[in-house]
User: What shape does this take?
Amino acid sequence: MVAALERVFREEWGRVLATLIGFLGDFDLAEEAAQEAFAMAADRWPRDGVPGNPHAWLMRTARNRATDRIRRERALTAKYALLVAGNSAEVPMQATTFPDERLELIFTCCHPALAVEAQVALTLRALGGLSTDEIARAFLVPERTMAQRLVRAKRKIKAARIPFRVPPAHLLHERLDAVLAVVYLIFNEGYGGRDELAAEGIWLGRALAELLPDEPEVHGLLAMMLLHDSRREARFGGGELVLLGDQDQSRWNTEQIAAGRAELDRALALGGRGPYVLQAAIASLHAEMPCDWAQIAALYGELGRLTGSPVVELNRAIAIAETEGPEAGLRMVDQLGLDDFRYLHSTRGELLRRLGRTDEARAAYRRARQLTDDGAERRFFERRLAELAGGTRPD
Amino acid sequence: MKYVMLIYQGDALERQAALPEDEQKQVYADYQGVNETPGVTPGLPMGLAENATTVRVEGGKTLTTDGPFVGMKEAVGGFFIIEADDLDAAIEVASRVPAARYGGAVEIRPSEVYW
Assistant: This one.
C-alpha cells in the first residue's frame, strides 16, 4: 500500500503542481495547496482506499485548499475572482479532465534567466517532487542553502514574470537544449554513484519523451541515460571502479539496454543526428561485445564536428587506439590541450602502459591521481600505479 | 508589466566606430527600430560616462568626484522602458539592441512598486 501510494504521489505531483500553477499563476500558492492535498491523501487513502481517479481527487482537493487559503488571507484579488468563476462555470477545472501542463512547468523551471543550479533544484522540486532536504542532500549542500536557492528562484519567476508556457517555435529548440542540459546534469551528478539522482534524471527523461514525442534529441538523451545506467552495477565492483573492458557483462541490465535501444531507434526514425542521439548510438555500441571500435571512432568524429569539444576528441583517440594501435591514439592525445583534465592523463597512462613505456605511464597516472577528488577514481589510479611498479608488462 | 532596460556599451562604441558606413547606418536604424517598438518608451540619450560626476554625502557634506560610480567600462550607457507581457518579450527586444551584439549588453530589470 505504501509503495503503491508513493508511486501515485510520484506520478501525480508534477501534474497537479503544473495545473495549479497554470490556474493560479502563483508558484508558492500552488505548491502549498498541492502539499496540503498530498498530505490529506496520505492520511485518508490508506484508511478509505485510493479514489477511482486519484488525479481528479488531488486536483479538486488542492484547488479547494487554495481557495480556502486565499479566503483566509482575505486577498480578494483577481485570483479569487478567477477561482470563483472556475468554481461556478467548471470550465478550466472539469471534474475528471485537467490539462497536463508539466511541459509548461519544465520550461519555466529551466528558463535561461535562472542560474543553472536553480534550474536543477527547481526541476527536481517541481517535477520530481523531491523535498528541499532531499535535493540538498543529493547535491551535498546545507538544507538552508538549498531552501534559499529555491525561494530566490521562485521570487525571480514572479518578479521578472518568467512566462509559464511552452516556448513558441522560434525559441523551442534553444530552450529545449537548456531543459535537456538540466536533465542530463541531474543524471550525470548521479553517475558517480549517487543512484537516486541518476534514477531521477531517467524519470524526467521519460516524462519529457512522453510530452515531446516527436523531438529526436529528447529520445536520444533518454536512450543515452538508459544505456549508461544499464552498466551501473558492473561499473562498481565492491565500491571500486571497473573499466568497460573488465566489466562482468552478466551484471549489465539487459532489459534497460533494450529499452535504451528502442529509444535510440525512435530518435533515429525521427531523423535525429544531434549530440544526444550520437552519444546514445555510441553507448549502444559500447554495450555490445566485441565493441565495433571503428564505428565508435566515426561517431565520435561526427560528434566532435558538432560540438568542437576536445573531450570528444579524447574519446575518439581511445577508439582509434583500439583500431590502429596505442601509438596512433597517443599521437592524437598529445595534441589535445587538456592538461588539467584527469582523463587525459589516465588515457595517456593506459596507452603508454600498453606500449611498455612504464616510467612515462607511471608519471601520467600520478598526474591523473593528483587531479581527481573522487575516492573510487583515486583508488583506481593507485591500483594502476601499483601494477606498474610491480613491473607488469603490457599484455 | 514594465521593465527598465539598461544598456551597457562595453567595447561597442569603439567597435561600431570602426564599422563600414552601411553597417553604422544599420546600427542607427536598429536603435530607431527598438525605440519605435510598441510598448517602448525611449530614455533620454546619455552622454559619455567620462563626463559623469558622482555625488556622495558623508556627515552632511556633499562630496563630488569625477567619473561614474563604477568603472568607465561598467557604466550605464543608456536606458529605455518597455511595457511587455513577460520576460521573453523583453528579452526579444533586448536582443535587438546593437550594443548587445558588439561586445556590450542589456540588463533587464523588472520595475517594482515600493510605496
Observations:
- The mean pLDDT of chain B is 95.
